[in-house]
Amino acid sequence: MTSMGKTRRMMSVGLIGAALALTLAAPARAGETPAAATETNAAGWQLTPTGADARFRGLAPVDRRTAWAAGSKGTVLRTTDGGRSWRNVSPPGAAELEFRDVEAFDTRRAVVLAIGEGEASRVLRTEDGGATWTESFRNTDPRAFYDCMTFFDRRHGLAMSDPVDGKYRILSTRDGGRSWQVLPNAGMPDALPGEAGFAASGQCLVSAGPRDVWLATGGGATARVLHSTDRGLTWTATVSPIPAGDPARGVFGLAFRDRAHGIAVGGDYRKDQPSPQAGAVTGDGGRSWRASATPPPAYRSGVAWLPHSRHAALAVGPTGTDLTTDGGRTWRTIDTGSYDTVDCTPDGSCWASGEKGRIARLGR
Questions:
Q1: Residue 363's pLDDT band (cuts 50, 70, 90)
Q2: Which of helix, strand or coil describes residue 260?
Q3: N or C of the chain: less Cβ packing under 10 Å?
Q4: DSSP per residue over 52-112, as a string?
């Protein structure tokens, strides 16, 4: 094994150990989650002081020091010191916008997506760490509602809208988000009646490698995952075992560690409704999906593979965090704090964010 391989292996083992250590943490005091009760522990989610009360469904960590978060009330935050402090870099005049996704390339360059019907759906870009922002796309079609975006590299990216004229609409950029074009829909399968995407975690549209991208759906009779191997020009649709049949149910988040192995999470986002079969896995790029043998116990909106691991991943939702160490086949709850989305970086850090300004890092 090369020295780089040894380093990556150590990172992966350390992160898995940190996540597993959460299960051994002392019970929380009344009103606290395990993460809060052991906030100074070396393992577990460690909340960071954001000074914000927005709900951060958009999260884009770059490395263990730099991360971006985007949320309600037009709020965008950035840290460059590992979460010890956050700077409010929100675009001026954006207080009425609902940011649900952010994609960051480094400490200075990031793209954020605002959701909503018609002109509420917008894309803004910064090249100076949020000091200034440029609006690069504003939706003018009242039938469109953009949910998520993803980037294959620093130049090529996609954003997706709920169906327009019976098909999902795909927006494409080839210049890092400076300009966008609607792709032709000839290669897009028809949407099911009532089917749509969920703007819950920035993970209803995800990519792996230079050309593969997946789109998660719900609300229709079945919850599907659509897959494209040519950056969004043509798609195939596969039914997932995650229950749908209601506007509140379906696949909410996807994560692929390569172009073959992926995890889907979801359920029913209503607090008073159960979410059986809230997880599924694929080993063939989404051509087929298998229900998790032991799925997350409740609705989950975000999921991420641990860095350089073939088998470990985290799933998050309003009622907790779950860990899998077998590629998504079985899950175990390791924290009861509320988070909407989760993401990990190549250099070995994992971050989560959610309601009431909550942004946390997985303890080292």
A1: confident
A2: coil
A3: N
A4: --S---EEEE-SSS-EEEE-GGG-EEEESSTTSS-EE-PPTT-TT-EEEEEEESSSS-EEE
